[in-house]
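Researcher: Quick one. four chains, 430 residues in total.
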Amino acid sequence: MARDPGTEASASSSTPQLDRRTARRIRTKAEIVEAAWDLVREEGLAGLAMRDLGKRVGMKAQSIYSYFESKNDIYDTMFRDAYLDFNSTMEAENEDGERFSDVDTALRLSHRFFDFCTSDPVRYQLLFQRTIPDFVPSEESYAVAVDALDALTNQLADVGVAGDESVDLWTAVLTGLTDQQISNDPGGDRWKRLVDRAVLMLLGEVAPDLIEATK
Amino acid sequence: MARDPGTEASASSSTPQLDRRTARRIRTKAEIVEAAWDLVREEGLAGLAMRDLGKRVGMKAQSIYSYFESKNDIYDTMFRDAYLDFNSTMEAENEDGERFSDVDTALRLSHRFFDFCTSDPVRYQLLFQRTIPDFVPSEESYAVAVDALDALTNQLADVGVAGDESVDLWTAVLTGLTDQQISNDPGGDRWKRLVDRAVLMLLGEVAPDLIEATK
DNA sequence: GTCTATAATCTGATAGAC
DNA sequence: GTCTATCAGATTATAGAC
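Model:
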């Protein structure tokens, strides 16, 4: 079977030369993507230009096409990476098996979401809004996104936010707080301070028993 | 005093020729802005190109510069118009002086906001998000925006949503519902159906007396 | 007030030498 | 794998004839 230049995953131990070459290639790709993130954080998500990107990694823009098929391919990689980050951030275990009540866990989960989103507005835009003209995620990347959001739904169900309408309401309130924080008080905490209150309000609406039991 | 080509508002009755000319000019400007709205609704807010705009109004792109100083000037006009629309929509009186309870009025106000926003996603984007690269509203237009939002704050206070934190919470929840509706179910009603529930939940949090009194 | 012509600059992407 | 050279196109905006 011929090597697949697309995946670059497997590397048989019988070809150490190719291993090193492949490893180098993967490192360079990662370097390019990292530079792309830096660039969009400065210029905005739509401000990613191949020339500038090349300059930043110390190549001519044209050379990037040896690593990525197109600009869309770079966006796609960023999109997938962002959802993988989202997933591992949201699923992080609490330290050394501490036990919390469902209410506390719901609060921690919501803060984790809020902080993840507001800590990188451009990433948030890529994850949850549709503002890049012409960008369409590949099937593979889209599947990663769906998995990540499914996992979130399960986490919410575990702490009392169960059912489509409850999840929709939670999503609306949390993204609403996030959006306002990013748009109207970037770097501040004007809406961050409202997260606890909003989550308790939500739980009171969708899981009143939980709140009663805690009183 | 010389005529001010910037405002085009006053027209003395002693110069009917100029009146007609000015009126025509104003109509053409309005026509261009209308075409610009059509265009961004099809191509997205960032997809406004002078060429296409010219084509749509039956001129060469270059001729538009006789009416607007720059592309930014066109965006600025759209921005101001959108806030004026927002204002008049939100301040519309109820029919023939009907009286409603504060809870009912809060619900009507919230639905009006939600419907205004979701009925024109591009306008919503221009009003409440920052996604046009390099666009900065003029001082005059910015003042219109501030006035409109102040008016909204006053309306909210009248129906029991008073105080900075309460207003911030209302704003976050309503824009959150709006965003989700636009992004994830355009043209549908998946989040519209949650507006009543969300508003009652909010009022229970920020004006519990109001809800108690209604029971 | 509209046009032609054009400036000046940016864009993503390809061909082919080395 | 990186380069030079270049394409083919877009963009906003200005100058000047009519």
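The interface with chain A takes residues 44, 46-47, 128-131, 133, 165, 168-169, 171-177, 179-180, 183, 190-191, 193-194, 197-198, 201-202, 204-205 of chain B (CB under 8 Å).
Researcher: Thanks, that's what I needed.
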